[in-house]
Amino acid sequence: MTPQSGPLDRLEPFLSERNLDYHIHKIQGGLRTRLERLSNTPIPENAYELARLITKSEPGPVQNLSMELFNHQHYWESLSLRPGPAGQALLQEAEKSFGSFELLLEGLRQQFEAMNPGWLYLSHGEHLRIGFADHPLLSGETMLLCIDGWEHAYYLDYQHRRMDYLQALLLKLVDWAKVNQRLLQANKPGTDSLLA
Ligand SMILES: [Fe+2]
């Protein structure tokens, strides 16, 4: 089962079935159709293959659409109604990079509030980094978390209350145990950053 093919009510009440139906079928499905039309090769379902398509493509529509698809897969994989807590590795990195895990969350809130619609990233290179402009894969970093900040991700449920959407994600849906697992994977010697 791919992350986007589970039951559409799986994130209720924080993200509704109607929202997921629209986001996954209309928006994400539309991205896939556009990429299929532009690209001469079949579009991989597998996130690792999608990541390879991003890194080997020239800047342009194919790369942008691949990034959008990859981000959506990563986003759905990160959300759960039964999220696990941050593990030791993530807590330690958060303390080193931001002062504490709470300050990491605060950094995500501040960046989300300040940025234009788009993706918010938490990535790991030499340290943890919050950003929105450059895709972590193109900076050679491991993407630990990406948050969909496009209006289609939240408008049906939250309208203009985009910070309430973010808060619901950070406190109720983001599986921090999964983020921790990605960090551990990235720190393993010799690991390809695309695999984490
Ligand atoms: Fe989206």
Summarize the structure.
With 196 residues, the chain is mainly α. The protein has eight helices and three strands, in the order αααααβββααα.
Descriptive account of the structure:
The chain is mostly helical and 196 residues long. It has two domains: 16-78, Helix Hairpins (Orthogonal Bundle), CATH 1.10.287; 88-187, minor pseudopilin epsh fold. The chain is built from eight helices and three strands; from the N terminus they run H-H-H-H-H-E-E-E-H-H-H. It has helices spanning 17-38, 47-56, 61-78, 88-98, 101-114, 155-158, 162-173, 176-187, and strands at 119-124, 128-131, 142-148. A three-stranded antiparallel β-sheet has the order 2-1-3. A hairpin with a 3-residue loop joins strand 1 (119-124) and strand 2. Helix 1 (17-38) runs antiparallel to helix 3 and helix 5 runs antiparallel to helix 7 (162-173). The radius of gyration is 16 Å and the shape is globular. The two termini are 19 Å apart. The relative contact order is 0.15. The mean pLDDT is 92. The chain binds fe (ii) ion.
N-end to C-end Cα span = 19 Å
CATH class of the largest domain: Alpha Beta
State the major sheet.
3 strands, antiparallel
Can you name the CATH architecture of the largest domain? Answer: 3-Layer(bab) Sandwich
Structural category is mainly alpha
Radius of gyration of CA atoms, rounded to a whole number: 16 Å
What proportion strand?
Answer: 5-15%
CATH topology of the largest domain: minor pseudopilin epsh fold
Q: Could you state the order of secondary-structure elements as H and E?
A: HHHHHEEEHHH
The bound ligands are:
fe (ii) ion
Specify the overall morphology.
globular
Q: Are there runs of 5+ residues with pLDDT below 50, and where?
A: none
Helix content: 40-55%
Please identify which CATH superfamily of the largest domain we are dealing with. Iron/manganese superoxide dismutase, C-terminal domain
